[in-house]
Amino acid sequence: MPMQAQEIEDLIRETFPQAQITITDLAGDGNHYAAEVVDASFVGMNRVQQHRAVTKALKGKMDGSHGELHALALTTKAPA
């Protein structure tokens, strides 16, 4: 079952409550999204660490071929 953009944002917001989060449905099918997450907690983390933190916040929704979220293009950064 496809996920809604708001569901993705809500999951990320649980872990990153102060983040600036932008979710974009790339294909209109509820399975292919892009997410931009800007959060101060990313200071001192490299990009891989940032992406892992966001993926962990999704609580398994992207796990394996049976995950609810098929594809998520991530952009993460600390605020300027």
Structural class: alpha+beta
**Biggest beta sheet summary:** 3 strands, mixed
How widely separated are the two ends?
37 Å
Mean residue pLDDT: 92
Q: In percent terms, what proportion of residues is strand?
A: 25-35%
What is the molecular shape? Answer: globular
Number of distinct helices: 2
Helix proportion? 25-40%
Write out the strand line-up for the largest beta sheet, numbering strands in chain order: 1-2-3
Q: In terms of per-residue confidence, which ranges show pLDDT below 50 for 5 or more consecutive residues?
A: none
SSE succession: HEEHE
How many E strands?
Answer: 3
Rounded to an integer in angstroms, the radius of gyration calculated over CA atoms is 12 Å
Plain-language structure description:
The termini are far apart. The chain is 28% helix and 25% strand. It is of the alpha+beta class. It has 2 helices and 3 strands.
Task: Present the secondary structure layout.
Elements: H1 5-15, E1 20-25, E2 32-38, H2 47-57, E3 71-77
Parallel strand pairs: 2-3
Antiparallel strand pairs: 1-2
Put the structure in a nutshell.
This protein has 80 residues and is an alpha+beta fold. It is built from two helices and three strands, in the order αββαβ.
